[in-house]
Write a structure and sequence with these properties.
Layout lengths: L1 E6 L3 H10 L5 E7 L3 H4 L23 E3 L2 H5 L6 E4 L6 H10 L3 E5 L6 H14 L3 E4 L6 H12 L5 E11 L12 H4 L1 H18 L4 E8 L5 E9 L6 E10 L5 E9 L2 E6 L3 E8 L4 E3 L7 H15 L8 H20 L3 E2 L4
Parallel strand pairs: 1-2, 1-4, 2-3, 4-5, 5-6, 7-10
Antiparallel strand pairs: 7-11, 8-9, 8-15, 9-10, 11-12, 12-13, 13-14
Helix pairs in contact: 1-9, 4-5, 5-10, 8-10
Length: 343
């Protein structure tokens, strides 16, 4: 049994807590939060850009910590699931690794490549697993693209265009989401989902060329990126940002073009995964994965149990995705493509 301590009971901590119930071989042994109400199981104030509130939770059998250091020192915990604000990821990951724990950190891995590198190096020194929860790799409709790419059922993938927009976040405790110094802004906190998935499909791009708009703070709050893969005969782009209105708090989707089929999905307008074939037919494809969060956490738990780093959630891959989105923000601000070769 892999015993998990969840650090942070916000929207993502709540989501992970619920998903662990579906993971055989995992037990949420402890939680950390500074909020007394949450420690008592009152999570009604927890919300995010999809799903409902946290409700009232039965925490029987779960150790409750208001002191993070105490939870990190708990010898009964094998894995720290880090769901605290992004600007804290480096500090707390290093503390957890130093305490002898494996770590699963919610995306983004960090806010700078330097911090990500320090975290990876610390995990290697400690001999512990450092994993990053880039959940889109497990999202049912998106994972189906990867499956079809690897199977070759519809031939080579020629084009892929992704979309992800949300309304401006206002659900976090103390409104830390509104501070780009704590989140990295919409590019690092939101758009990284699709950049990471593009990398999952094709590997790191040679360069990115992005256009976009800036917030009043000078942060990129919306962008469109072309990912350049010279010699690969593929066209890939993604758009994303916090520019939607409250009527559509969250929307994601894609159009993907294989040689012999097109895949279409949009969470608002085309919630099923539609496949259009070269014969003129259309059908809905039932994805292999049922619950993205449970599948992601199952991958982490199985990795800890086996003592083997799962490639799909390896920290180094997440580090490369962070490097790419930071280059995208640079491209928006300079109006020029940014090379990613050699790094």
């Amino acid at each position: 049994m892999v015993r998990v301590g969840i650090a942070g009971i916000g929207f993502m901590g709540k989501t992970h807590f619920e998903a662990y119930r579906q993971v055989d071989g995992a037990q949420v042994a402890a939680i950390f939060t500074r909020d007394p109400k949450k420690l008592e199981g009152d999570w009604t104030g927890v919300r995010g850009n999809f799903g409902g509130s946290g409700g009232v939770v039965d925490l029987a059998g779960v150790q409750k910590y208001q002191d993070l250091d105490a939870m990190l020192a708990d010898p009964e915990i094998d894995l720290i699931d880090l769901c605290l604000p992004s600007h804290l990821h480096r500090k707390i990951t290093l503390q957890a690794l130093d305490a002898g724990k494996h770590v699963l950190v919610e995306k983004p891995i960090a806010l700078t490549v330097e911090d990500a590198d320090a975290m990876i190096e610390a995990a290697e020194r400690a001999g512990k697993l450092l994993m990053v929860a880039q959940v889109l790799r497990f999202w049912p409709e998106f994972a189906a693209i990867k499956d079809l790419l690897e199977s070759g059922e519809y031939g080579a993938l020629r084009g892929a265009h992704f979309k992800r927009v949300i309304s401006r976040p206002d659900w976090s405790g103390d409104d830390w989401f509104a501070d780009p110094e704590k989140t990295g802004g919409a590019v690092v906190d939101l758009h990284i989902h699709d950049t990471d998935f593009v990398q999952y499909l094709f590997g790191p791009p040679a360069a990115v060329w992005s256009t976009g708009s800036l917030s009043s703070r000078g942060q990129v709050d919306y962008l469109v990126t072309e990912y350049q893969y010279p010699g690969r005969n593929v066209c890939v782009s993604a758009q994303g940002g916090a520019v939607a209105q409250k009527g559509i708090e969250f929307e994601h989707g894609f159009d993907v073009y294989f040689e012999r089929a097109m895949l279409k999905h949009n969470s608002s307008t085309t919630p099923a995964l539609e496949v259009y074939t070269e014969e003129g037919g259309k059908h809905e494809l039932a994805p292999r994965i049922k619950d993205a969060f449970a599948e992601q956490l199952r991958t982490a738990v199985e990795g800890v149990a086996a003592g083997r780093l799962p490639e799909a959630i390896a920290a180094r891959s997440a580090r490369d995705s962070l490097r790419t989105v930071l280059a995208e923000a640079q491209s928006v601000k300079t109006g020029q493509p940014v090379s990613l070769e050699g790094g």
